[in-house]
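User: I'm new to structure prediction. If I give you an amino acid sequence, what do you actually give back? Let's try with this one:
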Amino acid sequence: MPATVLAERIGWDGSASWFREQVRRVRPDYAPKDPASRLRHDPGDQVQCDLWFPPAKIPLGNGQLGSPPVLVMVAAHSRFITAVMLPSRTTPDLLAGMWFLLNGQLSAVPHRLIWDNEAGIGRRNHLATGMTEFVGALATRIVQLKPFDPESKGIVERANQYFETSFMPGRTFASPADFNTQLTAWLPRANTRTVRALKARPVDLIGRDRAGMLPLPSVAPSAGFAHQVRLPRDYYVRVLSNDYSVDPTAIGRVVDIRADLHRVEVMLQGRLVASHERSWSTGATITDRAHVAAADVMRARFQTPRAVPAQDDLIRDLSDYDTAFGVDFTTGVAS
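Assistant: Good question. You get back a string of structure tokens that encode the predicted 3D arrangement of the chain. For your 335 residues, that looks like this:
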């Protein structure tokens, strides 16, 4: 209830500013309470996930600077930190990033992946396209927290703060690849620190955490960008706001596009027709000179008129037709 309404209800005729100040002071005593229960994190039960945006401008190529998202995943029981910088926060890159960390750094699959309401993961209790297949292949599930529930994801939030106070100071980065190289080299040191709440080091507890997790699947889940398109005349395909050249011999054919965190590949019936390093900038055109040379040859061949072969073997003497029809022009009489 606004302070002006309260003043009217009780018939207050004194200073309005003084009354508003007194109401502001007593409001917390009447506000609804939100108790924060103590959470228990069983080994292997959950990994908390979040995106952290480093406070630094990193060269992305094509003359652009930016702060790409860093996917941070922390095993809740051991506090073991894994992280990698992603080209974008789109669903394909989030899927590729999660699989990269689960397979390459954590080496196991938790029973639950805890997320907030990140658009690339899902909104309003509906997972984004591709998420259901991903968690199904891993035999895990994604839990998206309700708003105003910071305690349930506090472990990964503290890890983000730890990055800013312990990893970032004094560092410069030449590229996203350089950022990931430095981050990968620093993470083992971060996981050997003693966590005050646990009175132990994450590296000493991760074994117990992995023992409670699920094993990695024998077949890798579908992750990253995947699309099919009929290659147009300009022999370029678009992948997340960038254009990549393709062998022009595939023009007019349906090609399969695959992109992970590092490379973009295009296949035509199992044959590789393009392979490029993934660009982190936006609006870029990435060209393979071999594709341009092949297009020049095809264009010159198309524009050169075809020579008509001589057909001497089809020319016959007209007297042969006279004989065939029984006409003798020497006498003018048909035989």
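You can read the tokens as a compact description of the fold. Here is one thing that stands out. DSSP finds nine helices and 18 strands in the chain.
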